[in-house]
């Protein structure tokens, strides 16, 4: 209440300008929701790009080729739907390679190699592969293909 010079006290009236209307609040909430959706869609996939995973695999295949030439032993790469690994031929047996770049690796989360069963390519001591291999990779709607040539070239397409 305010004191007026003539009457004593007068009631204070609150105008509509001191608060927000329901429509204004709904607009603000909608704008915040749209901005949040844009931010989420713009964030990169925490698993990385599928083409990068294919490139990492191709690089390791080239390293296996180099290991075969340097060691003078046959080295193979095997691929199955859940991962891949590298073996070397010792004493008539395939023995898994334990060194870091050629250890057994699982495909990243959500990634799958579209091969029916375990498939193997062997590099001899001269670096030649016994056959070519195409490894299609899929993660959700994205697909890439890693091609291993008989001359140890490995490339990613897609």
Automatic annotation (TrEMBL):
Keyword Kinase found: no
- Which UniProt keywords are given for this protein, alphabetically ordered? Cell inner membrane, Cell membrane, Membrane, Methylation, Transmembrane, Transmembrane helix
Protein localization: Cell inner membrane
Highest taxon in the source lineage: Bacteria
Asked if NAD is a keyword of the record, the answer is no
Q: How does it sit in the membrane?
A: Single-pass membrane protein
Membrane-spanning regions, if any? 20-42
Q: Which SUPFAM superfamilies match?
A: Pili subunits
Family membership: Belongs to the GSP H family.
Please report the name of this protein according to its UniProt entry: Type II secretion system protein H
Native source species? Sphingomonas jeddahensis
Organism placement in taxonomy: Bacteria, Pseudomonadati, Pseudomonadota, Alphaproteobacteria, Sphingomonadales
């Amino acid at each position: 209440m305010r004191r007026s010079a003539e009457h004593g006290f007068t009631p204070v009236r609150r105008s509509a300008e001191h608060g927000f209307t329901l429509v204004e609040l709904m607009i603000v909430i909608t704008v915040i929701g749209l901005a949040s959706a844009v931010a989420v869609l713009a964030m990169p996939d925490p698993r990385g790009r599928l083409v990068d995973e294919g490139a990492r695999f191709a690089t390791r295949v080239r390293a296996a080729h180099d290991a075969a030439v340097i060691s003078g032993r046959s080295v193979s790469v095997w691929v199955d739907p859940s991962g891949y690994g590298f073996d070397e031929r010792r004493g008539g047996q395939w023995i898994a390679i334990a060194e870091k770049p050629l250890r057994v690796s699982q495909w990243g989360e959500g990634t799958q190699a579209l091969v029916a069963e375990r498939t193997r390519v062997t590099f001899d001591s001269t670096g030649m592969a016994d056959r070519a291999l195409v490894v299609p990779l899929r993660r959700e709607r994205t697909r890439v293909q890693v091609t291993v040539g008989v001359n140890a070239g490995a490339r990613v397409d897609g």
